[in-house]
Amino acid sequence: MNEIEERIIRKLVELLIAAGYTLSVWDGEGYAITGSGSVDDTLAAMGHTGEDTLQVSRPWQQDAYSADLGDIYLVYGNDGHDVIADDNVEPMLNRILDEVESFADALAQEHGHA
């Protein structure tokens, strides 16, 4: 994970956890962490493979299926600002994703990737 990717992912994880969600990281082979409410622990579990899927959940839901709000697919090693390759999330998360996308666009312009 390069510096731009790390900054974007930190922003994403901080906003999601601050909003009260828990995060799980699927690294393609297994869960590196599940149900995390810690920014540092979540970030430490990420970036060890070429891609991760960040699963976003509501910790206050009793039913595991209704707790899942979707997935954010991350791919490392490209330009950095495009680390969020895809998402399949509930509409309630769009505000956070829009904020992170604006942050990523600003970083891309800063680094001449506009």
How does this structure look, described?
- By secondary structure, the chain is an alpha+beta fold.
- It has one domain.
- The chain contains four helices and five strands; from the N terminus they run H-E-E-H-E-H-E-E-H.
- Strands 2-1-3-4-5 form a five-stranded antiparallel sheet.
- The two termini are 20 Å apart.
- The mean pLDDT is 91.
Domain count: the total is 1
Helix content: 25-40%
Provide the spatial order of strands within the biggest beta sheet: 2-1-3-4-5
Number of strands: 5
Distance between the termini: 20 Å
Most strands sheet: 5 strands, antiparallel
Q: Low-confidence parts lasting 5 or more residues at pLDDT below 50?
A: none
Mean pLDDT: 91
Structural class: alpha+beta
**Shape annotation:** globular
Order of helices and strands: HEEHEHEEH
**% residues in beta strands:** 25-35%
- C-alpha Rg (nearest Å): 13 Å
Number of helices: 4
Q: Could you give a quick summary of the protein structure above?
A:
With 114 residues, the protein is of the alpha+beta class. 38% of the residues lie in helices and 28% in strands.
List the helices and strands and how they pair.
Blueprint: H1 3-18, E1 22-26, E2 31-36, H2 39-44, E3 51-57, H3 64-67, E4 68-75, E5 84-89, H4 94-110
Antiparallel strand pairs: 1-2, 1-3, 3-4, 4-5
Helix pairs in contact: 1-4
Q: What descriptors fit this protein?
A:
single chain; 114 residues; alpha+beta; five-stranded antiparallel β-sheet; 4 helices; 38% helix
